[in-house]
Specification:
- The chain is an all-alpha fold.
- It is elongated, with a radius of gyration of 16 Å.
Length: 76
Amino acid sequence: MKVLLSIFHIVVCVALMGAVLLQQRKTGGFSGIFGGGTQADASGGQWQRFTTLTKLSVVLCAIFMATSLVLVFLAG
């Protein structure tokens, strides 16, 4: 069971990395890296940016956290 859960965890990790990397940036260029895009976030259109890819990232993150906790409990 531990091996199967570990393989599933690795698959979720790869899928989560892909989902995060495929998302569009909120701001262009390097200004988002250093916090230059804060005014774009306060525009009120935040719910419009909550796309299917973002929802997938949230679900994959929750699965990743759950499998991480289960693997830690199985190791102990």
